[in-house]
Automatic annotation (TrEMBL):
GO terms for cellular component: cytosol. InterPro entries: ATPase_NBD, FGGY_C, FGGY_N, Rhamnulokinase. GO terms for biological process: glycerol metabolic process; rhamnose catabolic process. Residues 248-441 form the Carbohydrate kinase FGGY C-terminal domain. The keyword Disulfide bond applies. Belongs to the FGGY kinase family. GO terms for molecular function: ATP binding; glycerol kinase activity; rhamnulokinase activity. The keyword Transferase applies. Keywords: ATP-binding, Disulfide bond, Kinase, Nucleotide-binding, Rhamnose metabolism, Transferase. This is Rhamnulokinase.
Length: 467
C-alpha cells in the first residue's frame, strides 16, 4: 500500500511543499509549491519575510491536500538557529535573519559572561556568530516574551497551537547540553536568558498536535503535525544513504555541512580548535560536522550579476563555461567571514583574493570556477579534519542536496579529497522529512539504516571518481 505525507522544507533561498509517497519499495516526492526565500532589509536589520512564508506554506499545503487527499500528516523542517518570540500566543516581532549584523554584539556579550571554551564543553557547538544564544542575548523583545520557538516549531505552533522544541534543531541554539540533550537552564541563566521561555523538548517522530479548526478549514483536512528532524541538515543526513559507517557526508545547499555521523559527541580541545560541531541528528545520532560556506557564494554572485545586467543568468550555461576554463586558477578561503553578509559578492571575493596576494579572475566563468574549486577545497579539508578528529578512515563522501546536481562541484570535491563522491539525492532534506513521518505512522522501516536502505534502493547516486 502507498502512504502519503506532506513535507514543508524551507531553505535559506527557497521553500517547498512536497507530497511524499512511501511504500515497501517506493519513495517519491511530488513538488506542489516552490517559492523564493531570502533576507529582507527592514528598518532594524535583516529579517525573514515571515508573513509571506506562512501564506506560501498554507497555500502549498492546501494544494497538496487537494492533489492527494490520502495525506496522513505534515512535517516541517527549515534552516536552524532563527526563532520567533511569543507572548500570550502572539508573535512579538518578525523573526530576524541569522545574517543580521547585530549578532556580533551578542557574541561579545555572551563570551564576556561565559568563555567559549566553557560553552563548547557544555553545548559542543562550533562557533558560529549567529547561534541562537547570541541572538537571544541582544534581542530587545526578550523581556516581553514568554516563549521562544525556532522557525519550524513556530510554524507548527501556528498550525496547531502546540509549543514544543524539536531536539535536532534545539541542538543548534547553544542552550542544549551536549551530554544530556536537555536544556542547559543554568547556562541560559548565566547569559541572562530566562529558561522559562524554552519549551518542552520532543523527539523527531512525535506528534506535535492537530491542526487548529481555522487551519483545518483552510486546508480542507484535519491532520496532525508530526515533528521531523526539523533542522534541515538533520533531515538531510537522516536520508543520506551513507555507503558505510566510515563514509562522510556533505549536505550542500546554501551551506555545505561536512562531517561524520557518530554515536557520541567529540568535544576535545582539537575538535574545538578545528571548530567542529556536535549537533543532534534523528535518533540522537551525533552530526559531527563543520559549516563550510556553500552555494551561497555562487547564488549571491549570480544575484549580483543579474542585478547588474537586468536579466536572469543561465546558471547551467555559466557552469559549463566555467568547466572549460583551463587556466590554473587561484583559490580563496570559502569561510572568510567577509563573505557572510548579502550583497556585492563578486567584489568581496575579489577583495579576499587580492588581500591574499592572488590575481583576480577577469571574467565570470573563471570567477565561477574559482568559487567552485574553493568550495571543493574547503569540503576536502573538512572531511580530512573530521577523519583526523575521530580516528576514522573515511572511504567515500555522500554529497546530498542541491549541490549534488553541480557536476563541476562534485568532481572537484572528489579530486580535492582523493575520495569517491556519491552524489544525491538532491532532495535529501524533504526525503528525510517524509521518512520520519512515515516511520511514525508505521509505514517505513524502524531503524535509520532501514530508512537509508529505502533511499538507496529508490535513488541511485551518481558516482564521481577522484582524478
Ligand atoms: C543549513 C543550515 C545549517 C545551519 C545554517 C543556519 O540550511 O541549517 O545547518 O548552520 O543553515 O541556520
Amino acid at each position: 500500500m502507498i502512504r502519503a505525507f506532506a513535507a514543508v522544507d524551507l531553505g535559506a533561498t527557497s521553500g517547498r511543499v512536497m507530497i511524499g509517497r512511501v511504500g515497501p519499495d517506493l519513495l517519491e516526492l511530488e513538488q506542489v509549491a516552490r517559492f523564493p526565500n531570502g533576507p529582507v532589509q527592514r528598518e532594524d536589520g535583516l529579517h525573514w519575510d515571515f508573513g509571506a512564508l506562512c501564506e506560501h506554506i498554507l497555500d502549498g499545503l492546501a494544494e497538496a491536500v487537494r492533489r492527494e487527499p490520502a495525506i496522513e500528516s505534515i512535517g516541517i523542517d527549515s534552516w536552524a538557529v532563527d526563532y520567533g518570540l511569543l507572548r500570550d500566543g502572539m508573535l512579538l516581532a518578525e523573526p530576524f535573519h541569522y545574517r543580521d549584523a547585530r549578532t556580533a554584539r551578542g557574541v561579545e556579550k555572551v563570551h564576556a559572561l561565559v568563555p567559549f571554551e566553557e560553552l563548547y564543553s557544555r553545548n559542543g557547538l562550533q562557533f558560529l556568530p549567529f547561534n541562537t544564544m547570541y541572538q537571544f542575548a541582544v534581542d530587545e523583545r526578550m523581556p516581553d516574551a514568554d516563549t521562544a520557538l525556532l522557525i519550524p516549531d513556530l510554524l507548527a505552533f501556528l498550525l496547531t497551537g502546540a509549543r514544543v522544541a524539536e531536539r535536532t534543531n534545539a541542538s543548534t541554539t547553544g542552550l542544549l547540553a551536549v551530554h544530556t540533550a536537555e536544556w542547559d537552564r543554568d547556562l541560559a541563566e548565566k547569559i541572562g536568558v530566562d529558561p522559562r521561555i524554552l519549551p518542552p523538548l520532543v523527539e523527531a517522530g512525535a506528534v506535535i498536535g492537530r491542526l487548529t479548526p481555522e487551519v483545518a478549514a483552510r486546508l480542507g483536512a484535519d491532520l496532525p503535525v508530526v515533528a521531523v528532524g526539523s533542522h534541515d541538515t538533520a533531515s538531510a543526513v537522516a536520508a543520506a544513504p551513507l555507503p558505510s559507517r566510515e563514509s562522510a557526508y556533505i549536505s550542500c545547499g546554501t551551506w555545505g555541512l561536512v562531517g561524520l555521523e557518530l554515536d557520541a559527541p567529540v568535544v576535545t580541545d582539537a575538535a574545538r580548535a578545528a571548530n567542529f560541531t556536535n549537533e543532534l541528528g534523528v535518533d540522537r545520532r551525533i552530526r559531527f560536522l563543520h559549516n563550510v560556506t556553500g552555494l551561497w557564494l555562487l547564488s549571491e554572485s549570480v544575484r549580483a550579476w543579474e542585478a547588474q545586467d537586468g536579466t536572469p543568468i543561465d546558471l547551467p550555461a555559466l557552469l559549463a563555461q566555467a568547466a572549460s576554463v583551463d587556466d590554473a586558477l587561484p583559490l580563496f578561503d570559502a569561510n572568510d567571514p567577509s563573505l557572510a553578509a548579502p550583497g556585492g559578492m563578486p567584489e568581496r571575493i575579489a577583495a579576499v583574493l587580492h588581500e591574499s596576494g592572488h590575481p583576480v579572475p577577469q571574467d565570470r566563468p573563471a570567477l565561477v570556477r574559482t568559487i567552485v574549486e574553493s568550495i571543493a577545497a574547503a569540503f576536502a579539508d573538512a572531511v580530512a579534519t573530521a577523519a583526523q578528529l575521530t580516528g576514522r578512515r573515511v572511504d567515500a563522501i555522500q554529497l546530498v542536496g542541491g549541490g549534488s546536481l553541480n557536476e563541476l562541484l562534485c568532481q572537484a570535491t572528489a579530486d580535492s579529497s582523493g575520495l569517491p563522491v556519491l552524489a544525491g539525492p538532491v532532495e535529501a532534506t524533504a526525503l528525510g522529512n517524509v521518512l520520519v513521518q512515515a516511520r511514525a505512522a508505521d509505514a517505513a522501516p524502524v531503524t535509520l539504516e532501514g530508512l537509508r536502505d529505502l533511499v538507496s534502493r529508490t535513488h541511485s547516486p551518481r558516482r564521481y571518481e577522484p582524478r
